[in-house]
Design brief:
It contains ten helices and ten strands. The chain is α/β, with parallel strands linked by helices. The strands form two sheets. It has a six-stranded mixed β-sheet, with helices on both faces. It has a four-stranded antiparallel β-sheet with strand order 2-1-4-5, with helices on one face. The protein has helices at about 40-50, 80-85, 100-110, 115-130, 135, 150-160, 180-190, 205-210, 230-235, 240-245; strands at about 1-15, 15-25, 30-35, 60-65, 70, 85-90, 165-170, 195-200, 215-220, 220-230. α3 (about 100-110) packs parallel to α6, α4 (about 115-130) packs across α6 (about 150-160) and α6 packs parallel to α7 (about 180-190). It is globular. It has one domain (about 1-245): P-loop containing nucleotide triphosphate hydrolases (Rossmann fold, 3-Layer(aba) Sandwich), CATH 3.40.50. It binds adenosine-5'-triphosphate. One of its GO terms (cellular component) is plasma membrane. Keywords: ATP-binding, Cell membrane, Membrane, Nucleotide-binding, Phosphate transport, Translocase, Transport. Its main location: membrane.
Length: about 250
């Protein structure tokens, strides 16, 4: 089933067209990987899904993007509520300079949850879901900045999960991490897809092959091909996809 369906999406930064006629369905409770050479529009596309591009000046978006049956670009959409349903994790772990507890409790508190017991429960659930609880449960009041890079990234995932999103967008979430921390995040992503729909931008084709169900290949603003990951990496339909995955460019 499609969680998000994108039809005829075009996006411009001023006069520059960064995405052209994109049609793509994001399947529910699956991992969709976005791959392609630098500058092809992967991050731009990812940001259209929760309207993060709205924050950039001079962006024009046309086409239709639906989260289930809701058109997310309608004028009356509450963008804050939308971003609550579609959370985001960035390339570089970006915890707040606050305690581990406060990082996770921050969003729920802003949404008006004040009850300490309820916040405790959200913090524990989110940290458990992000496979971080056992490592931090005895130092919840310590600064998040004292965690390792991989732990910080799992904390950022916990922070997103605290808002009970339905979709998680991840923009190269492991590119700043070592192989062991990367493996932990990959395991976590595979676990999380039981409950969440995940869209991940990655430069690593090995990573896309390891963790994703579907893969979309972008090239210079066009979506060249989208299919089951297995198919993309074994028998792609388009010569350009084949050239990219066999390392002929990129
Ligand atoms: N804020 C912006 N203003 C103008 N042009 C932009 C902006 N952000 C991105 N672009 C341009 O849009 C195109 C797509 O960029 P985008 O960052 O989406 O690509 P990408 O595939 O994610 O690249 P990378 O893998 O290097 O992160 C590029 O040509 C880029 O220079």
């Amino acid at each position: 089933m499609s969680k998000i369906s994108v039809k005829n999406l075009n996006l411009y930064y001023g006069d520059f067209q960064a995405l052209r006629n994109i049609d793509l369905n994001i399947e529910e409770k699956k991992v969709t990987a976005l791959i392609g050479p630098s500058g092809c529009g992967k991050s731009t596309f990812l940001r259209t899904l929760n309207r993060m591009n709205d924050l950039i000046d001079n962006v024009k978006t046309a086409g239709s993007l639906c989260l289930e049956d809701q058109d997310i670009y309608r004028d009356d959409v509450d963008v804050v509520a939308l971003r609550r349903r579609i959370g985001m994790v960035f390339q570089k772990p970006n915890p707040f300079p606050k305690s581990i507890y406060e990082n996770v409790a921050y969003g729920p508190k802003r949404y008006g949850i004040k009850d300490k017991k309820q916040l405790d429960e959200i913090v524990e659930r989110s940290l458990r879901e992000a496979a971080l609880w056992d490592e931090v449960k005895d130092r919840l009041d310590k600064s998040a900045l004292g965690l390792s890079g991989g732990q910080q990234q799992r904390l950022c995932i916990a922070r997103a999960l605290a808002m009970k999103p339905e979709v998680l967008l991840m923009d190269e979430p492991t590119s700043a991490l070592d192989p062991i921390a990367t493996a932990k995040i990959e395991e976590l992503i595979i676990e999380l897809k039981k409950n969440y729909t995940i869209v991940i931008v990655t430069h690593s084709m090995q990573q896309a092959a390891r963790i994703s169900d579907n893969t979309a290949f972008f090239l210079m603003g066009d979506l060249i091909e989208v299919d089951k990951t297995q198919k993309i990496f074994t028998t792609p339909r388009d010569k350009r996809t084949e050239d990219y995955i066999t390392g002929r460019f990129g």
